[in-house]
Write a structure and sequence with these properties.
The chain is mainly β. The chain folds into two domains: about 140 residues, no CATH class; about 55 residues. About 10% of the residues lie in helices and about 50% in strands. It is built from three helices and twelve strands, in the order βββββαβββαβββαβ. The protein has a nine-stranded mixed beta sheet with strand order 1-9-8-7-6-4-5-3-2. It has a three-stranded antiparallel beta sheet with strand order 11-10-12, covered by helices on one side.
């Protein structure tokens, strides 16, 4: 694998499955840890868990994976020396909003080596200089909920909401499976200025699977 990202640069972490959205990150400069800032993940010292090491990163605000919030509960712990360091960085991939698959929940862990021997100018100016930055050596995952294809058999539900006068309104919606049906019903309520306060639904009928 051996994916490399230089310090203070943008890159993506590799993922164990090609259907996962890759985390788009910005590695921060060394010693950025001296002042704690919001929206930054710090690698904590494995021997002193409340102490920050010099390694940290944040997320690219334009990242599709960040917009969809599929990566959650980041944790990073590791070790640092004068010239090198390492870390185990982990996060949960949580996605139950895929139109084709019925949810996925995986805990993914990356093992990262950090190298910062000498100066960064030596690396940028000398092709034989040592690499300054992250080297991701491996990625592994543990599955909690494995994604499965959604059932797209036509199905009809009756949905309930309220109008502007506070009176109950009911309407039927048919979609290709429950997920599609729910999305269509939500869109109808969101786009109709006279409807609000979705309150529930009940099953009406189901077609024959294709």
């Amino acid at each position: 694998m051996n994916t490399q990202i230089r310090f203070n640069n943008v890159g993506v972490l590799p993922v164990p499955f090609d259907w996962m959205l890759q985390p788009d990150i910005k590695t921060l400069p060394l010693r950025h840890h001296k002042s704690k800032k919001p929206d930054v993940v710090y690698v904590m010292d494995e021997d002193h868990p409340r102490k920050r090491t010099m390694y940290s990163f944040r997320f690219n605000a334009n990242s599709e994976s960040l917009k969809r919030k599929v990566w959650q509960n980041w944790h990073a712990i590791g070790w640092e020396d004068i010239e090198v360091g390492h870390a185990f960085i982990s996060a949960t991939y949580y996605d139950f909003d895929d139109p084709d698959f019925d949810g996925a929940k995986y805990r993914v862990t990356w093992f990262v080596r950090f190298s910062h021997d000498g100066t960064p100018e030596k690396y940028t100016g000398d092709p034989n200089g040592e690499f300054w930055g992250w080297t991701i050596d491996s990625v592994s995952s543990v599955c909690a909920f494995e994604r499965e294809p959604r059932d797209k058999t036509p199905i009809t539900y009756e949905y309930y909401c309220k109008n502007l006068a506070g009176k109950r309104v009911a309407f039927e919606m048919t979609g290709n499976g429950q997920y599609d049906c729910e999305k269509k019903a939500k869109k109808k309520i969101d786009e109709d200025p006279n409807l609000s306060d979705y309150t529930g639904y009940c099953f009406v009928s189901k077609g024959v699977a294709a």
